[in-house]
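Amino Acid Chain and Its Fold in Token Form
===========================================
Structure side: the spatial fold of the chain, written down as a series of whole-number tokens.
Position: the record begins directly beneath this header, with no further notes in between.
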Amino acid sequence: MAEIRQPMSVQPEGAQRFMGRDAQRMNILAGRIVAETVKTTLGPRGMDKMLVDSLGDVVITNDGATILSEMDIAHPAAKMIVEVAKTQDEEVGDGTTTAVVIAGELLKKAEDLLDQDVHATVVASGYKIAAEKAEEILKDIGDKISINDEEVLLEIAKTAMTGKGAEKAKDTLAPLALNAVKQVAVKENGKYSVETDDIKVEKKEGGSVEDSKLIQGLIIDKERVHDGMPKKIKDAKIALLDCALEVKETETDAEIRITSPDQLQAFLDQEEAMLKKMVDQIKASGATVVFCQKGIDDLAQHYLAKSGIYAARRVKKSDMKKLAKATGARVVNKVADLEAKDLGHAGSVEEKKIGGDEMTFVEGCKDPKSVSLLLRGGTEHFLEEVERALEDAIGVISTAIEDGTICAGGGAAEMELSKRLNEYAEKISGREQLAVKAFAQAMEIIPRTLAENAGMDPIDTIVALKASHETKDHKRFGIDIFDGKVKDMMKAGVVEPLRIKEQAVKSASESAIMILRIDDVIAASGIGKKKGMGGGDDDMDMGGSGGMPGGMPGMM
């Protein structure tokens, strides 16, 4: 009688595994779904998304990075596409939707090749060749600019804001963003570098966007610690303290024994004298304003008020750093060490009431390397969208100033890239040629999506755009969404930093290649059920992508 052998399993019960073509299909689909989600937000005529989290908080935006960070995405391949948006946002500050849409299209084209029995490693290899060539082509189609080309830099900022909720205020916000970036830009070895963290954005409800302004200094979200202090100090000398204006407690457990009222009085007098000495030392340095990172004792507040010194306490460490950059002050760790040379200067320090909150305005700083932008707007949601648009504008201006290279927007760069990659593909022998051609065709998704979102006929538009790019000097031709024509985007003022395109193509191709190379997905038991992500008993449901209907396997 033949021996019955049990099939051997090396994984725990309930673990699931997808292999070969199934794993590839599932991962490609997950990536494409993420791209489809943000696709409709691309361009000036893109739509917005309303995202509601588990607590009921609402975010309304068409900023790709915000949408993907707010969405509750569980599928591992989809998360890799979200990483593309994160990288793009951190590196350039804009172009997140472009990067994700390109990644999704690269996966779609790869799937067509896989269906034709082209091996995944061949597709990945072809994509790698195409991505390297794309980098060369982009460098060739870029145009040089400098920090003094203000008109072009303003157009770059406006392009980044077009299509966002703050679009109607872009003529107000673009100059604010440009002036802020130019103020904090630092020149080293002939090149500019911009630390965008040095631009502090404070938003307050009330008024209109037109009331927003740039402060040559900082806005600190703190009020005076004592009503007896002056509300405004002109020609302020500012001390920054990283120590508490309080009597220090002993570091070890100590017991003080007092046996008579005289001793208690002497103890209290000694405490008072110590606090008075601290305030006297501050006064002796010549300081008229004190920003303290830690607490200020009630008695110390009284003495500071008597001395006519303006003081704010518990100022954030990040704000202290910015104050040092704006006023030229040095943060001091010990009051006894405070000297006149440690003080910073500002034209005025004043407590103002904005949107129902008392805030301290440090203004009139001489050549500050840290500034504040005060944003005003009617509602909280609108203000948040204005802030996102402004951050994109600051990001693209900074990138353009640092790199000194720009390119035409409106799908012009992508179409030129597609054309030149197609020509390059002809020179490649072997199956990689198919992947390079697929990569070239994938680039057309950007102008096509721009046309679709604007209600134009995508086929007619792409045909017209291709025809215009056949002429050698027409590399700047893209789609003018507002009149539906193909024209020179540079003249139309649709300009972007070249790094947006470089980074988008680089991160999109890297993530697509990584996803294509996966041929086996092994999931721990109960991955979907533990988190309540739904799915049948036998489904490997790693969560629907951001609350989209059904789990991944069900959508294949």
About this structure: The longest helix spans residues 261-284. The domain at 218-367 is CATH 3.50.7.10 (GroEL). The two ends are 44 Å apart (CA to CA). The longest strand covers residues 344-354.
